[in-house]
């Protein structure tokens, strides 16, 4: 297994530890889809964040925000993705996504 399960959020870490073949297949699928076209890594991370926002997944928004910061993507770009959700998803969902991002970028 390429990722240490202890470095993953609890649910994902449990699956990775208990079912390493499932986790490895899942990780391989993610890698294959990211490499299936011409989208660069930065853009792919922002798209994944947007998809997490659209799926209303707080955990995925947190995860993609953490990973984006580790990859050097500036917090303002991440917050812009949340703001861009407002016209499509509505003001409440865009603000909710912004707060999820700020949970990671601006912890108290």
Automatic annotation (TrEMBL):
Q: Which GO terms describe its molecular function?
A: peroxiredoxin activity
Q: Write down the InterPro entries for this protein, in alphabetical order.
A: AhpD-like, CMD-like
Write down the Gene3D superfamilies for this protein, in alphabetical order.
AhpD-like
| Domain named Carboxymuconolactone decarboxylase-like: residues | 20-103
Signal peptide (UniProt feature, chain positions): none
Pfam families, sorted: CMD
Could you tell me the superkingdom of the organism this chain comes from?
A: Bacteria
Q: Would you tell me the protein name for this molecule?
A: Alkylhydroperoxidase
**What organism does the UniProt record list as the source?**
Salinarimonas ramus
């Amino acid at each position: 297994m390429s990722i240490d399960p202890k470095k993953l959020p609890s649910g994902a870490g449990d699956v990775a530890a208990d079912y390493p073949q499932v986790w490895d297949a899942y990780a391989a699928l993610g890698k294959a889809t990211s490499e299936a076209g011409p989208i660069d890594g930065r853009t792919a991370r922002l798209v994944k964040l947007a998809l997490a926002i659209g799926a209303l997944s707080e955990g995925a928004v947190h995860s993609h925000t953490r990973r984006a910061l580790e990859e050097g993507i500036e917090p303002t770009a991440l917050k812009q993705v949340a703001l861009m959700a407002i016209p499509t998803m509505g003001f409440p969902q865009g603000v909710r996504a912004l707060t999820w991002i700020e949970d990671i970028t601006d912890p108290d």
